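**User:** Hello, beginner here. Are you able to go through the protein record under this note? It all follows right here:
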Amino acid sequence: MSVDAASARAPDLVALRRGAEALAARLPGLLVEAERVAATVAQGVHGRRRTGVGETFWQFRVYQPGDDRRDIDWRQSARSRHLFVREQEWEAAQSVWIWCDTSLSMRFRSARDLPSKLERALVLALALAALLVRGGERVALVGSGERPRPGRSGLERLMRSLEPALARRESLPPPADLPRFAQLVLLSDFLEPPEALSARIAPWVAAGVRGCLLAIADPAEELLPWNGRVLFEGPEGEGRALVGNVAAVRTRYAELYRAHREEIERRVVRQNWRITRHRTDSTAETALLALYQLLAPEAVR
């Protein structure tokens, strides 16, 4: 790179750094918003209960071959023609790792009254963490080097870990050794090539890590609502494209966008992970509830 080229790029790098610092400065405010969202959703959920070792009753279910006969509840069975097993709630706290895409494409928003994809991802990451620690779970940010922690300290450490992550502008989660049966939550627009995402999560899939993905989109990315002659510029150095008549390419664009999204979903499901979608013109509460439900044990088995 020539000196002139490096000098020409300097203002852009300064602007990027300032943008990251400004967003990091907003994290405490985003945490307040996240806790409000989490509190709203918490009123409508009953915790991530699952069977396992514990003393709290969960439910009765019909006896199946292979069940221990000592688990049969004879009093409940006497009321029916079937044998019933008494299941207990698993009280051991799970560890959940969270990652947010901090790449430049996530800074996009098509209208001033909409949050950027990154702002929505940060709110949802913090809200999910707040909801999880309320239930006694442990949370950490992937790539932070921090161990998952419970309670308020876990939430605050995750928030502090997000500050340096904003400056790294990661478009894919960093490689990390996660314990078997851990849960991983990825929040991104997933505009990367599908094969790149598959390759990155493959080691976790092989290790038995259970993953949930939230694909965040701005409505303009799906609808391409502009008309006439429009100059498009890629946020990550992809260059510029002048389209003379946006309406003429809208149908083909929608087909390509849908094909990319479906290919991402197909690959994720094939790897036995789960994925859901969210648009920034929808409420954060609906996205958080959908993401929380994906983490339920019955959804990831």
